[in-house]
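Whiteboard transcription, Tuesday session. T.W. wrote the structure tokens on the left side:
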């Protein structure tokens, strides 16, 4: 299954859900009020929309995610690289590192990833 597009506000909602799930919808409304400043209606609207897109399920007032954080993050990165850099990972990395100094440890981790990918 391809991960549906997740918008910024939905991602913030999912971060709360992933931390608390499975969670009672009433408790989720309270969490969203405290952390996002959302009303009850807004929270239920987001739950309904994400349910319709197969991202979450709300059964017997218990809400849980049907997609993982990793799946959503991977889909967002794929979309960014495709849309902004024509799918080119080297162009993405060049832009990412242009104004950011990588530590020796970060370089080592990236090099290890490249080495493992070659195998």
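and on the right, the sequence the group agreed on:
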């Amino acid at each position: 299954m391809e991960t549906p597009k997740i918008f910024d506000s939905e991602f913030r909602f999912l971060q709360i859900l992933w931390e608390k799930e499975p969670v009672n919808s009433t408790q989720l409304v309270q969490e969203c009020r405290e952390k996002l400043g959302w009303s009850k209606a807004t929270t239920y609207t987001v739950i309904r929309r994400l349910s319709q897109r197969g991202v979450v399920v709300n059964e017997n007032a218990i809400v849980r995610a049907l997609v993982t954080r990793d799946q959503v993050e991977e889909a967002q990165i794929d979309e960014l690289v495709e849309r902004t850099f024509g799918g080119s990972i080297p162009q993405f990395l060049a832009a990412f590192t242009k104004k950011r100094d990588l530590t020796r440890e970060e370089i080592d981790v990236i090099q290890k990833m490249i080495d493992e990918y070659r195998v």
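Someone added at the bottom: Residues 8-69 form a domain with the Arc Repressor Mutant, subunit A fold (CATH 1.10.10.10).
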